[in-house]
Amino acid sequence: MATQVNIETMPLRRGNWWVLIVSSMEQIIGAALSTVAGVMIPMLNLISHPELSTAMQGVLGASALVGISIGSPIIGKLSDKMGYLIWFRLCAVIIILGSLISWLFPTVTCAVIGLFIAGLGVGGGYSLDQSYISEIMPKRWQQIMVGIAKGSCALGFMGAAGICYMILKGDPEPQLWSDTMLIITALGVITLLMRIRWAESPRWLMLKGRTADAQQATRFFLGDGVVITPLPAAAKTKSATWGEMFRGRNLIRVIYSGIPWACEGLGVYGFGVFLPVLVLALGIDANNAQGIAKVINSVELTTVINFFILPGFALGLWLLNKINHVQLLSWGFLICALGLVILMLGYLWHWPLWVIILGFVIFEIFLNAGPHLVTFVIPSQVYPVVDRAAGAGIASMLGKVGAVAGVFFMPIWLQAGGMTLVLGISIGVMVAGAVIGWIFVGMRGIAKGAPQPN
């Protein structure tokens, strides 16, 4: 008989890495979805639909994020009750459905509907991805693996921007705006195929008293000889109601895990979705191109700027186990604000192009090294397994509320006060995120990210 090893103390196996890959897909798709929406907007606005109002641009940019903010808590709560597996697969189906609607019916209205539906699937995945990863990893690897999953969104931002650029460069026709949604369709199909042969969360099964099934699921993921220990009695409590999720200790969890995520959401998605538009507004296209060529140039520069998301996550992962998470969160916010100050000064005082790009680079690196990474790690640490998917869903929802506000108002701010207003508000939000983080530094247990029972 093979020697038995405990899931919490075992070394990493191939199965751990496969769980990480499959459970990271919504991170990649969510980033790609935002990037595709950001490319579609200038194409519609500048080429196909010049009458598109700033409010409608905001609706188009925010529709996927609204879907994510709704899908995260609802599917998270349903998963805690019904099991992770069924929704883990259905999320991919929902993503495919939404993307095909936008492609098959190329109108602005159907684009909004399709982005919203795809966002529902991505949001549900957000609530489940970190749950699967944190529950199937050895204890010493849980934080870093959840962080790596979040870091994979860099592949979505970079990959989608690069593919959109190649599509437009190869066939610069404005009618291709809807074809960019096929990127999301392809990613959804790949995700669904990877999840056909999958198993229920061992921890969820253990929570429901299905010990034998939990051991079988553990062997499915990690191989023979790996066992999962029973949950401590404290973890086998009744799941909280929706009302209880916003009271007492749970309210602290909601504030700690959700409000900084909302501040971070403006930076990631407000800038992520409208980056091609902001590049145009900054006037940093040296070629002075017009029409579709101008859009292509903005997408090219967007691809270059998005490249710095990856080293930002790499820096954050290196620091994750070295310094306090709240300090990493707050200092990340503060340095992001500094990058935006440099960007604003370079824009206002007409400094050389490299200064403006430097501001973007500082912003992207430290946004992803700090807030973007840490806000995803926190929910899996502070919520017990009985409420983990629901808690992660609420945190993700609040994050997307901030993102929706940023995306919706970004074109309105841009029209009302130009880049000066956009950057001024963004700097204020980054500073607010830092202050909120520091408020929790002095708090014990929950605020320091002390892991709850798995």
Tag the structure with descriptive keywords.
single chain, mainly alpha, 2 strands, 1% strand, disordered C terminus
Can you describe this structure in just a few lines?
The chain is mainly α and 454 residues long.
Question: What this model shows, in words?
Answer:
The chain has a single domain (5-439), classed as MFS general substrate transporter like domains (Growth Hormone, Chain: A), CATH 1.20.1250. 75% of the residues lie in helices and 1% in strands. The protein has 17 helices and two strands. A two-stranded parallel sheet has the order 1-2. α2 (25-48) packs antiparallel against α5. The chain starts with a strand and ends in a 15-residue tail after the last helix. The model is unreliable at 442-454 (pLDDT under 50).
Structural class: mainly alpha
Q: What fraction of the residues are assigned to beta strands by DSSP?
A: under 5%
Order of helices and strands: EHHHHHHHHHHEHHHHHHH
What is the CA–CA distance across the termini? 28 Å
Radius of gyration: 21 Å
How would you describe the shape? globular
Poorly predicted ranges (pLDDT <50, ≥5 residues)?
A: 442-454
In the CATH classification, which architecture applies? Up-down Bundle
Which helices and strands, and how do they pair?
Layout: E1 5-6, H1 14-22, H2 25-48, H3 54-82, H4 84-104, H5 108-136, H6 142-151, H7 153-170, H8 182-196, H9 202-207, H10 211-222, E2 226-227, H11 248-282, H12 291-306, H13 309-320, H14 325-348, H15 353-369, H16 371-382, H17 388-439
Parallel strand pairs: 1-2
Helix pairs in contact: 1-5, 2-3, 2-5, 2-7, 2-8, 2-11, 2-12, 3-4, 3-5, 3-17, 4-5, 4-8, 5-6, 5-17, 6-13, 6-16, 7-12, 11-12, 11-16, 11-17, 13-15, 14-15, 14-16, 14-17, 15-16, 16-17
